[in-house]
Amino acid sequence: MPNPQLSIIIVNYNTKDDCIKCIQSIYDRILTISYEVLVCDNGSSDGSIEAINREFPWVYTIDNKQNLGFGSANNIGAAHAKADILFFLNPDTIIDHGIEQMCSYMIEHKDPGLLGPVVLDQNNNRNLFYPPVYSNIFLQVTDLVLTPVARLGTTWKKLVYNRNIGRNKIFDTKYIIGCAMMFKRSAFDAVGGFDEDIFMYGEEFDVGRRLRKNGYRIQIVPHAAIIHFGGHSTNQIPSDRILAIGAQSFKRLLKKHFPHTWHCRYTIEALTHIRQALSAFSKIIIGFIVRKDSAKNYLHLRNHLNQFKIMRRILKEKD
């Protein structure tokens, strides 16, 4: 039997029901190309592998026995995959349409190393990827001291993105959302796959920069879409642990891609959380004066102070 045209790799961690729905959507929506599905399980305790094997005996499951993180598990899946096109898909996603056309485009064109579909939330709103790291340090400083100006840049980016989607033509971008990433295998192998030192968060930023440095194009395909529900795996992890993982990944990204300015960039990000905490505190005071419920602002204040504390601790840790 010839190798499939597409290998779909799903990393699962205690998201049995989501993963089953995701695989079912693959079966229902991808009809005109040959594919295989590989589920790389990170030590789930909810019976995920047994349920998947029972519902979809044609799916290839890999039991990692422990939570290896996003990048390591995806690399293991890629090592077992047979196709020349690799599609990394989160378990809390559902195929909407156009993945077959996206795969065909990847096969027919040499330039793109990475393609992404339009990502929709459960309310059918488009999601746009916002890099965790500002490429330009001056933009990061602007976000700290002149936040409204930085938000204008974000608004402009969203307008350009929506305009390009409306034209329904494939267009170049710097990064795509990591919940649905389609690689040409040759490009994936050329940059060494995902960075296994990043347990979770920021992988798409890291691999995107490495791809572009190696001359590959990253593009979004407007006529392909998936629905991403988001956060179902991370909801099972304590919030402080999630914040620590995020801070560690952020530090790793900065040291890797901005070795001369990483410490300054990290410090600015930490100060940004102090600024956001002060903003929340000001809203609490105003809310008290006008007798308005400030529960949400109390939560923001606590979260940003906690994030600052964790970032300060991670900064002192030796890698």
Could you characterize the architecture of this molecule?
With 319 residues, the protein is α/β, with parallel strands linked by helices. It folds into 2 domains: 6-133 and 156-235, Alpha-Beta Complex (Spore Coat Polysaccharide Biosynthesis Protein SpsA, Chain A); 238-316. The chain contains 11 helices and 10 strands. It has helices spanning 16-29, 48-55, 70-80, 99-108, 137-145, 147-167, 185-190, 203-213, 239-257, 262-289, 295-316, and strands at residues 6-12, 35-41, 60-63, 85-89, 93-97, 112-120, 126-127, 171-172, 180-184, 217-228. Strands 1, 2, 3, 4, 5, 6, 7, 8, 9 and 10 form a 10-stranded mixed β-sheet that branches. The radius of gyration is 21 Å and the shape is globular. The N and C termini lie far apart (46 Å). The model has no long low-confidence stretch (mean pLDDT 92).
Secondary-structure blueprint:
Elements: E1 6-12, H1 16-29, E2 35-41, H2 48-55, E3 60-63, H3 70-80, E4 85-89, E5 93-97, H4 99-108, E6 112-120, E7 126-127, H5 137-145, H6 147-167, E8 171-172, E9 180-184, H7 185-190, H8 203-213, E10 217-228, H9 239-257, H10 262-289, H11 295-316
Features:
319 residues, alpha/beta, Spore Coat Polysaccharide Biosynthesis Protein SpsA, Chain A, 2 domains, ten-stranded mixed β-sheet, 18% strand, globular
In short:
The protein is an alpha/beta fold and 319 residues long. It has helices at 16-29, 48-55, 70-80, 99-108, 137-145, 147-167, 185-190, 203-213, 239-257, 262-289, 295-316; strands at residues 6-12, 35-41, 60-63, 85-89, 93-97, 112-120, 126-127, 171-172, 180-184, 217-228.
